[in-house]
């Protein structure tokens, strides 16, 4: 992840505000349409997610000039039964979009580092995941 002293601005590095919005729109269009994870977004406000994600990225990488006012990542995702495969699929879509938009390497590295840092904050594992999805948790007889 980029250090707080980075002198570059993520929005400027991707080509300005309009290009950042187009990048995020492409990213969220792919997320919403994805067969594996699209259901997570079925009732979401795409425009609000795009704006929130731009603010989050702008506030957390590069010069960190942005201001993110949304909920903490864990809180925003705590009721979703996100498994490792779901997270990895979203992460791969982000990689693909950053490549399509030819985001500079230092920005891509920082952005993907930020994304990977969210992994343990959003995924559910083991018994917790099964309970969240409504499955009975197997307990061996004693």
Describe the structure.
- By secondary structure, this protein is an all-alpha fold.
- It has one domain: Globins (Globin-like).
- 58% of the residues lie in helices and 0% in strands.
- It contains eight helices and no strands.
- The longest helix has 17 residues, at 17-33.
- It is globular.
- It starts with 9 loop residues before the first helix and ends in a 10-residue tail after the last helix.
- The relative contact order is 0.16.
- The mean pLDDT is 87.
Q: What is the residue-averaged pLDDT?
A: 87
**What level of helicity do the residues show?**
55-70%
By CATH reckoning, the class would read: Mainly Alpha
Order of helices and strands: HHHHHHHH
**Superfamily at the CATH H level?**
Globins
Organism: Lujinxingia sediminis
Keywords: Heme, Iron, Metal-binding, Transport
Protein name: Group 1 truncated hemoglobin
Question: In short, what is this structure?
Answer:
This protein is mainly alpha-helical and 142 residues long.
List keywords for this structure.
Globin/Proto, iron, Globin-like, globular, heme, 58% helix, Hemoglobin_trunc, Globin-like_sf, 142 residues, mainly alpha
Secondary structure layout:
Blueprint: H1 10-13, H2 17-33, H3 46-60, H4 73-77, H5 84-100, H6 105-117, H7 119-122, H8 126-132
């Amino acid at each position: 992840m980029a250090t707080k002293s980075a002198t570059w601005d993520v929005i400027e590095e991707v080509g300005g505000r309009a290009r950042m919005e187009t990048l995020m729109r492409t990213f969220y269009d792919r997320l919403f349409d994805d067969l594996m994870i699209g259901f997570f977004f079925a009732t979401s406000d795409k425009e609000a997610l795009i704006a929130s994600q731009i603010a989050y990225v702008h506030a957390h990488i590069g010069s960190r000039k942005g201001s993110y006012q949304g909920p903490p990542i864990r809180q925003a995702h705590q009721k979703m039964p996100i498994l490792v495969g779901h997270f990895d699929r979203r992460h791969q879509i982000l990689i693909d979009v950053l490549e399509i938009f030819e985001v500079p390497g230092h920005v891509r590295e920082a952005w993907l580092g930020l994304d990977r840092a969210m992994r343990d904050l959003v995924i559910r594992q083991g018994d917790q995941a099964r309970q969240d999805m409504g499955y009975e948790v197997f307990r061996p007889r004693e």
